[in-house]
Design brief:
By secondary structure, this protein is of the alpha/beta class. It has 14 helices and four strands. Helix 13 packs antiparallel against helix 14. The two termini are about 35 Å apart. InterPro entries: AAA_22, ExeA_AAA_ATPase_DNA-bind, P-loop_NTPase.
């Protein structure tokens, strides 16, 4: 990896550090490395001490992808929910279909907004894993059992000005992880905003277990029940169709057959992105073959 490449990665890291108002040691926690490793990353004279594998991991964390973030109606709606939650320390829940653009909008808001912390969940997380990930994105590192780690999160956030936590793919979390989130919510009520997002399964699960009076779920429902709706993905609908046509034009997809294929077969926004990228590759190969034929 060239030094120019490393400098681009470092510039992205430094921009994140400034946006989030973090110290170098806090950035080490965010990056998941030691303070000594962070010192080497930030000091070009010590770059020989940093492996290419670490540079690649940092690039995936901080360097923006080539795909443009389009401000669809859902994108604007989710950004508005995040801003409202942060300004008024509200709890909001977005339980909507996969591919609606939740992750893109939540990540974008967190990257652009001070004291906004994006946390991506997964099925394998224990409460301690979840607490550690929340701490990591905030730039702190307090070890202990899950409860002590959660209390450290609360202690840190009460010192921030209008913080907001964005929990993505919360439908993947276990009951114990949801209970830990409830504990954090309770201790930060009116002092921190929360946006909890997931597929339709999240709302169905909460409502089902609340009806069955499963331990803790009626309380979770009270905290999560401020549901926010998104526009359903239907390429036949004028607004959605207009967004798809705009993306195709912007990405150089102008062939009627290709556009018709996308409108007919896309099931959600991520399908649109993948189909556009595939057509871009196909068109590039076709253009190359035509040039070679002419040259021959």
């Amino acid at each position: 990896m060239t030094n120019e490449h490393k400098q681009r990665i470092l510039s992205a890291i430094e921009a994140y550090k400034v946006d989030k108002k973090l110290s170098q040691n806090q950035m080490a926690n965010v990056m998941g490395i030691s303070n000594a490793q962070a010192s080497s990353v930030f000091n070009p004279g010590k770059w020989d001490n940093v492996s290419n594998e670490l540079w690649q991991r940092l690039e995936s964390m901080f360097v923006k992808h080539d795909w443009v973030v389009y401000e669809t109606e859902n994108f604007r709606a989710i950004q508005s929910v995040c801003a409202d939650s942060q300004q008024f320390s509200m709890n909001h829940c977005i339980s909507e279909y996969t591919g609606a653009g939740k992750t893109t909008a939540l990540e974008s808001y967190a990257k652009q907004t001070p004291h906004a912390y994006y946390v991506l969940c997964d099925q394998m997380m224990t409460p301690k894993d979840l607490a550690r990930e929340i701490q990591r994105v905030m730039g702190i590192n307090v070890d202990g059992n899950a409860r002590l780690m959660a209390i450290a999160i609360v202690t840190y956030l009460v010192q921030q000005s209008r913080p907001v936590i964005l929990i993505d793919e919360a439908d993947k979390l276990s009951d114990r992880c949801l209970m830990m989130l409830k504990m954090i919510y309770d201790r930060l009520e009116n002092r921190c905003g929360f946006v909890t997002a997931g597929t339709e399964v999240l709302r169905e699960r909460i409502e089902k277990f609340a009806r069955r009076n499963k331990l803790g779920y009626r309380e979770i429902e009270r905290r999560f029940a401020n549901y926010k709706s998104l526009v359903k993905f239907d390429p036949r609908e004028k607004t959605i169709q207009g967004e798809i046509l705009m993306m195709c034009k912007d990405q150089g997809i102008t062939t009627k057959g290709q556009i018709t294929h996308i409108l007919k077969h896309a099931r959600h926004y991520d399908d649109v992105r993948k189909m556009i990228v595939n057509f871009q590759r196909l068109n590039a190969k076709t253009a190359t073959a035509e040039l070679e034929e002419v040259a021959a």
